[in-house]
Amino acid sequence: MNEIPQTAPAKATDTETVEQDLYQKRKKIYPREVHGIFAAMRVAGVAGLLGFYYLMPWILWDGRQAILFDLPERKFYILGMVFWPQDFIYLTLLLVVAALSLFFFTALAGRLWCGYACPQTVWTEAFLWIERKVEGSRQKQMKRDQRSMDLEKFSKKFLKHFLWLAFALFTGFTFVGYFTPIRELAAAIPTLDFGGWEAFWILFYGFATYGNAGWLREQVCIYMCPYARFQSAMFDKNTLIISYDEKRGEPRGARKKSADPQALGLGSCVDCSICVQVCPTGIDIRDGLQYQCIGCAACIDACDEVMDKMGYAKGLIKYTTQNRLDGDHTSIFRPRIILYASILLAIVVGTIIGIINRSPIDLDIIRDRNSLFRETGIGTIENVYTLKVINKDVVDHAYNLSVDGIEGMKLHIQKDRIFAESGAVIELPVSIEMDPDKLTQRTTEIFFKLETIDADMSITEEARFLGPLPMN
């Protein structure tokens, strides 16, 4: 009987190593505070975006909240403009513009969105700022976490998480304030006199912010965000990336400030690892471009500061392109950039023109599907239509309806008065009667004109009048 071969111990050890790498416990990253031009830009971006988010619901425009998505009333107020569900096309165009902008800026300058404007980055920066104010610098945080729980550690942790939760719940409250008038919501908070859905979304969005920005942080960028996985498809050798100048920096090594690196056979990198300490995702940029890099440029500011102290030229870590690193020419105006920019510009201009020329009246014309036409008892030809009148204005309107295109047409309306409340959609059955001798062809273009009685607004829509083949 043959013996079953045993698995070699070395292979078992390899398997255990793989499992440990795949499922190892997360090591907390303590990003070091950094100062510099890119840090200032990031702080300005965070302050601007958070300021817009938290302040905009409180701003009034024509007596109403400047931005309010009133779902029950199906009205969407944006800076004096009112949009309706019928204006869904503009939301579609907005999403297309956002996607193309992401493609354009990624192809041009890498992960600018991730480093400066992504909500995960913005709120993580805010939470890190709170953490540093409460717990102190990176070194203090690391030393405190290494020791057992005591009163000082507990009080710091408690205060930090209390502030995190308060900030996160205020974030959830503001989010709901874009859908429920925020002043009414604020007045209802002390007595908890608001609906269950408002409470649910305040808690859900608040705890999502607390979890993502306070606890998960870089895990969202590395493991949960799909953008990190497909961004390389938009990169080329002319895309701006953050890169370490290996030719200049290697071989790296510590030295005194007064030492001559050439005499020591060393490059400009002093191997201080500060570029790693400031990285919010914990990578070493000296290992090359990695998908975990969010393009925040913290390593550039940190390295430039070290180069200044050592008396070396800045730019050991910098924004550059792969072509420039290889000594080749870098081109900004290349086919994909021109294509993205052209399409983006065309859609943005078209969307702006469409919004400016958007009519508060909408008219849809539906022909009677039961018959193309019919002959009346007096020998005239009749076509039947159903008109859908949509009032997209903020006030009610009464309307006049007329038709043009063929001489002698008679318009019959089955309602004495055409009236539509704000946001209403009314169906209006109409018929057009025509002397067949006036028809010169089987189908003739006609035009319905709908105009308000109490305001100077109108809309004209095309339709077709069908009749028998004309006699020769």
Structural class: alpha+beta
Strand content: 15-25%
Judging from the principal axes of the Cα atoms, what is the shape?
A: elongated
Mean of pLDDT: 90
Helix-residue proportion: 40-55%
Please report the number of helical segments: 17
Oligomeric description of these chains: single chain
What's the structural domain tally? 3
Rg on CA atoms, Å: 33 Å
Number of DSSP strand runs? 16
Q: Regions with pLDDT < 50 over 5+ consecutive residues?
A: 1-12
Sheet bearing the most strands, described? 5 strands, antiparallel
Kindly report how far apart the N and C termini lie: 104 Å
Offer a concise description of the structure:
By secondary structure, this protein is α+β, with helices and mostly antiparallel strands.
What does this structure look like?
This protein has 17 helices and 16 strands. The protein has 3 domains: 37-232, no CATH class; 240-325, no CATH class; 361-466, Sandwich (Immunoglobulin-like), CATH 2.60.40. The radius of gyration is 33 Å and the shape is elongated. The chain has 472 residues and is an alpha+beta fold. The strands form 5 sheets. Strands 8, 9, 10, 12 and 14 form a 5-stranded antiparallel β-sheet that branches. Strands 13-11-15-16 form a 4-stranded antiparallel β-sheet, with no helix packed on it. A 3-stranded antiparallel β-sheet has the order 3-4-5, with no helix packed on it. Mean pLDDT is 90; it is low at 1-12.
